[in-house]
Design a protein that fits this description.
Distance between the termini: 43 Å
Largest sheet: 7 strands, mixed
Strand content: 15-25%
CATH superfamily of the domain at 196-342: ATP-grasp fold, B domain
Radius of gyration: 20 Å
Helix content: 25-40%
Shape: globular
């Protein structure tokens, strides 16, 4: 199989590259800058730089087409929100190449947190009470409804820009900093106590082919996980299949869900229609089989499998030494690093380049570094240059589904 992995800056993109490359598949990586960690893996046949899908969509599609033609790519695996631009412009991709992704319509329904809420209700999956705010006044009214609240933009990711009066992130973001509009609404929910539970799944023709449920015992800045521990998947696997069924099509692609475990009751919070770090917990053979759909039952990661991003764990220990140092030292000594066994250290050495890239993107915009890291590859619900009339109508329909 000849594969193109896009947005190779991500740790989980590097993991996908290693998994497929180690099995003998021909893997090419791409990103919008040359220093992306995954673009320097020894498991690559080649790597390339593309235009930004967000800021220069036409040239991005041209660059992808050039890579596909030059390397005879058969399958494109997106690893971040460039998936929306590829799905919206799938008619402009070369004939014969497959995009491991659902339709733009389905992706938009899953990504927009307001329409996602309606979708999971239809699927019979528990979700907290939700109020959609479309202006500053309705946002203030919504948060006054709940003694303890949790609010975020309909298009957000990575635990960035969270408005809450409860927990370690309380006060990090002010109501005055939130600018909800009808096109960019905010969701307000009662704060649900309990740990976050995350999932990662591959889906082929409407059927879950692999699944992992995990927690992040250690997090960077109370948002992005840096250690990952697999837990029981019984409930989340069932919920994932229900949501896929509710999409009403033979969905193919990668889905990642966040739940809150409130004393044993899981509540769906959001969906990332792309991979997350859960893929790291899958074995290489299992991941490759899951991509093809050639499995009789979903491949499920057993509870207890654990991985960490050691560099991030070490950095976090120095950022908050009193709180994190004992746990960090334990993890560094006992938890397997995501790069262990790959003998691919050159790629890891490029990690600072990703931070530099994020700092450049966020310069002068007062953006948190975590948010800026993907600023050139995100999609925030806007119409996409060159999208079909049908997809434009689908986007309007998604907006209309907000509750």
């Amino acid at each position: 199989m000849r594969v193109l992995v896009t947005s190779s800056r991500n740790t989980f993109a590097l993991d996908i590259i290693r998994k497929l490359g180690s099995l003998g598949h021909t893997v090419v990586a791409s990103d919008t800058y040359g220093g992306a960690v995954g673009s320097h893996s020894k498991y690559l046949a080649a790597h390339a730089v593309t235009a930004s899908p967000r800021f220069d969509t036409d040239r991005f599609i041209d660059d992808i087409n050039r890579i596909v033609a030059e390397h005879e790519i058969e399958l494109i695996i997106p690893t971040f929100e460039e998936v929306f631009y590829l799905a919206a412009r799938i008619a402009d991709l070369p004939a014969g190449v497959r995009l491991f992704s659902g339709s733009f319509d389905s992706l938009a329904r899953l990504h927009d947190k307001a329409s996602f809420k309606r979708l999971v209700v239809e699927a019979g999956v528990p979700v907290p009470e939700t109020v959609v705010a479309t202006d500053e006044e309705s946002l203030k009214e919504a948060i006054e409804r709940f003694p303890r609240y949790f609010a975020r933009a309909a298009f957000s990711r990575g635990g960035v820009g969270l408005l809450t009066n409860t927990g370690p992130l309380a006060g990090n973001f002010a109501v005055e900093d939130c600018k909800p509009t009808p096109d960019q609404p905010w969701l307000v929910q009662p704060f649900v106590d309990g740990p976050m539970v995350c999932t990662y799944s591959t889906i082929v023709n409407g059927r879950v082919t692999s699944h992992c449920t995990y927690r992040a015992p250690e997090q960077w800045a109370h948002s992005t996980g840096i250690t990952f521990l697999a837990i029981d998947s019984t409930d989340t696997l069932a919920y994932t299949q229900r949501i896929v069924d509710a999409l009403g099509e033979d969905f193919t692609g990668q889905l990642s869900f966040d739940f809150v475990d409130n004393d044993g009751q899981l509540y769906a919070i959001e969906c990332n229609p792309r991979p997350t770090n859960g893929v790291i917990l899958l074995e290489a053979d299992d991941f490759a089989k899951a991509l093809t759909g050639d499995v009789s039952e979903p491949i499920v990661v057993e509870p207890g499998v654990e991985r960490q991003v050691s560099l991030a764990v070490l950095a976090d220990a120095f950022v908050e030494p009193l709180r994190h140092l004992p746990t960090s030292l334990h993890d560094l000594l006992h938890v397997k690093d995501v790069g262990a066994g790959w003998h691919d250290s050159l790629a890891t050495l490029w990690s600072p380049a990703t931070l530099v890239h994020g700092a450049k993107l966020g310069r002068g915009q007062h953006k948190e570094l975590l948010g800026a890291l993907g600023d050139d590859i995100v999609w925030n619900g806007e119409p996409i240059d060159g999208m079909t009339e049908a997809d434009a109508e689908a986007l309007e329909s998604v907006h209309a589904q907000r509750v």
